[in-house]
Write a structure and sequence with these properties.
With 91 residues, the protein is mostly helical. It has helices spanning 2-22, 26-51, 55-90. The protein has one domain (2-90). The chain has three helices and no strands. Helix 1 runs antiparallel to helix 2 (26-51) and helix 2 packs antiparallel against helix 3. The chain is elongated and about 55 Å long.
Length: 91
Amino acid sequence: MLALTVITLLLVMAVALVRAFAGPNVFDRVMAANLFGTKTVLLIAAISYLYGSPEFLDIALVYALINYISVIGVLRVTELRNEQRGTKEGA
């Protein structure tokens, strides 16, 4: 059962990567990257359970925090760039 879960997570991660590279706009790409990061955390947790070593859960938590902060940062930079383009076009 755990093997099926890991295979499904890998499949969803592959689909998220395809969406990240072929997204119609930057927000769809960032959302797909966030989905990939979230599924990576789940994969690390499943591997932690599979091998019976809870140390991997610490790695999963750190990865989740880095994923969250990076998505917020990328969206903020994108928002600022869109605002700057809007003021240049309006002036």
